[in-house]
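Board notes (copied after class):
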Amino acid sequence: MIKLLIADNHPITRKGLEVLLSAASNIKIVASVDNGEAILEYVKKHPVDIILTEADLPVLNGLTVLRHLKHDYPDIKTIILSAQPEEVYAINALKAGAFGYIHKSVNVLTISEAILKVYNGGIHLSNDLTQQLAFGNRINKGGTFYKKLSTREAEVLKLLTIGRKNKEISKELDINEKTVSTYKARLMRKLKVTNLIDLVNQAKLNTGL
């Protein structure tokens, strides 16, 4: 039986996933939580095989949670379930430690199949993205841009675009504020901008958000 932890900040999404996945004979939902910190608190005390989580979580974002899990709980496998474009965020999610990326538009059968595939040692991406990666195609402007960023740069940029301040980013990523400023400077150079407002706007243009 696959022990599954669900994480999403929207109660209706969590409840929907619980109802849909509870019908699977090989999946046991052990808990559902609403923020990234709660994921880490839960796995400290309870056995979990798979975590199915939104990327945009409060308290700790999805990429930060992945980094902690990869370091402290390498046997737990995580699948990102998000409304964010797969071609933009999936690669960095995998680099951060995820074993799969599912867009929220898929049906429940796809989610169940992805959980089973990852549990058995595989990696789940959509067929379209898998083929594009296999043939080395450009996936799109936003995806190409994000592939140029390190996982940490992607984390910082993601937090900046949702309005986090340097001090908040420093605390969430467990780095000092000077380091945050260094990452911001790198991102500004890569996006060819000179201020935070233009940085955020250019990031949204590159990702189509």
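Comment from the instructor: Residues 50 and 77 are 5 Å apart (CA to CA). DSSP finds eleven helices and five strands in the chain.
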